[in-house]
Amino acid sequence: MLFSTDSRFYLYDTGSNKILVCNEIVFKLLDKFLSSDIEYSISEFILKNGRERFIYAAETIKNEIEKENILVTKKAERFDLSEHFRNYKEI
User: How many domains is the chain built from?
Assistant: First the structure.
């Protein structure tokens, strides 16, 4: 989830429960990724901001994903209610 204040831009990563500060150009690219088709997002971003800014923002996002372990989904744990259903009368 992305949000901003008057002076800063933030990414809240629900998987890690971290809030990270990001600069405006990274924020804009993340916003495009989260709101549109990826190919369209990249093309539109490059048209509006230039290829160099895209590369900078994409590398920054990649580095933060690796450094902070963000934007990854956790493997679901097994979900099993069979024992509870066997004893539902007691419960």
Answer: 1
